[in-house]
């Protein structure tokens, strides 16, 4: 994504337009719309007019092309309501949203990652919809991704998808290396098995090298690699269930050693610290790596489209690219631990202005957020992304839509999502903020130095441990 990527981006850095969105507080004066129990229930009833604003990035390749139709469909469902959508690029989404939040006039709805909820809760600018979202709405969603929209006891919107952060392999290269990828998709692999497999994927011809594994570690992807790996080493969250900081565990040090080991083996490029998300994908499409990461389901779609361009021979394919069948692969597990899939849960988060919104406007915002996250809108968007559907209504709408996906990949994603990392709405905002600060100021720069060969794993571990004890106290960190 974008993520996620977002991702999934995943995976990002990001101006207020002259025509700033109207604040929800300026939309909710004099409204007396009757809240409906289910979408569409208010159609044909007498209700005050209201406008709901939404700030939305290009969630999929065709998402923003559908804005006009989405607004028309919403108005047809609720004739008294107008959905006003402001498009944003991924690059300026955060800056645009933060500018509006800081001015006290955010949009009613913004599409953001669930990991950003605590930030805006701390600023007092999110709208808790736990007293307004109906049981029919809530029960439409799969339970696990819905939990990601919570913080404490509050609910702050609806999830759009839960995207697995996986690895992606070139089918021909995997088969050439003798890797039974179908077995790996079903049963996973250990770090030792993975290490030996990617060694087999290395090919050298003259001055060119095909690596066994490449992962984006620069720019917006700087924290993805380590965050994804440690979840499979007994640390599914930065905090244990008793709220002790987890990354002081000895398992963290072992993962750091393994991160360095794959580079020293020659299975990954020595210049890994300079590989950003764009270069990572270019290396995959041009045959410079057997396996890539962070892999998102939508990459299969991107690879298919590039393959079609190669077949058309019209010069629009990525320069130097080869045809590649994209295979979804799990991240290896470490130290005998159970696999835990890192996931991106992005969604339609509900904001409020400086003034308390009226109950009527709040109900209208909930209708709009649910409309965007469910049914036809969700089905169309998620199919474009190749991500799994997480609502019953979305699955029903998608049943009549055709998607050209590898069935092995569909099954592999289902396995990955079956052990997705648990949401942690119990982590206090203050602890979460400290962990983010530690990540930004210590973990990311130290990881870059480790990848570049400037420091040893032990030095990075000791730096993280010292910073964690300074932040949380000796009793507030794992000591094993």
UniProtKB/TrEMBL annotation:
Pfam families: SBP_bac_1. Keywords: Signal. It comes from the Bacteria. This is ABC transporter substrate-binding protein. The keyword Signal applies. The keyword Signal applies. Residues 1-22 form the signal peptide. InterPro entries: Bact_solute-bd_prot1, SBP.
């Amino acid at each position: 994504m974008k993520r996620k990527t977002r991702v999934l981006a995943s995976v990002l850095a990001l101006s207020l337009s002259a025509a700033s969105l109207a604040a929800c507080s300026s939309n909710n004066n004099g409204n007396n719309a009757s809240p409906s129990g289910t979408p569409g229930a208010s159609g044909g009833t007498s209700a005050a007019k209201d406008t709901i604003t939404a700030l939305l990035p290009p969630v999929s390749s065709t998402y923003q092309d559908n804005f006009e139709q989405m607004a028309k469909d919403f108005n047809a469902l609720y004739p008294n309501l107008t959905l006003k959508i402001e498009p944003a690029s991924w690059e300026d989404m955060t800056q645009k949203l933060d500018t509006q939040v800081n001015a006290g006039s955010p949009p009613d709805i913004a599409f953001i990652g669930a990991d950003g909820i605590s930030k805006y809760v701390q600023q007092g600018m999110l709208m808790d919809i736990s007293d307004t979202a109906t049981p029919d709405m809530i029960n439409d969603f799969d339970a696990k991704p819905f939990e990601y929209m919570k913080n404490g006891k509050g609910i702050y919107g609806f999830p759009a998808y839960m995207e697995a952060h996986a690895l992606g392999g070139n089918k021909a290269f995997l088969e050439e290396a003798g890797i039974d990828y179908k077995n790996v998709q079903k049963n996973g692999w250990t770090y030792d098995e993975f290490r030996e497999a990617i060694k087999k994927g290395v090919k050298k011809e003259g001055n060119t090298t095909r690596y066994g594994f490449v992962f984006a570690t620069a720019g917006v992807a700087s924290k993805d690699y380590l965050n994804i790996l440690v979840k499979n080493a007994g640390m599914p969250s930065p905090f244990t269930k008793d709220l002790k900081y987890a990354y002081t565990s000895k398992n963290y040090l072992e993962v750091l050693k393994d991160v360095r080991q794959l580079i020293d083996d020659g299975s990954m490029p020595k210049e890994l610290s300079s590989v950003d998300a764009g270069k990572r994908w270019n290396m995959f499409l041009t045959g410079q790596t057997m396996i890539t990461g962070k892999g998102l389901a939508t990459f299969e779609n991107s690879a298919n489209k590039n393959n079609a361009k190669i077949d058309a021979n019209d010069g629009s394919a990525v320069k130097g690219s080869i045809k590649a069948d994209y295979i979804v692969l799990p991240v290896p597990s470490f130290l005998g631990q159970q696999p835990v899939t890192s996931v991106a849960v992005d969604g339609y988060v509900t904001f409020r202005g400086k003034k308390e919104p009226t109950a009527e406007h709040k109900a209208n915002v909930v209708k709009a957020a649910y409309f965007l996250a469910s049914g036809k809108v969700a089905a169309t968007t998620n199919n474009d992304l190749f991500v799994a559907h997480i609502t019953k209504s979305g699955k029903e709408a998608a049943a009549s839509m055709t998607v050209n996906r590898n069935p092995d990949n569909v099954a592999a994603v289902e396995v990955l999502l079956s052990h997705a990392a648990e949401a942690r709405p119990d982590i206090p905002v203050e602890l979460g903020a400290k962990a983010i600060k530690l990540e930004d100021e210590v973990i990311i720069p130290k990881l870059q130095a480790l990848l570049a060969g400037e420091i040893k794993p032990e030095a990075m571990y000791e730096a993280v441990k010292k910073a964690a004890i300074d932040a949380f106290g000796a009793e507030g960190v794992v000591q094993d």
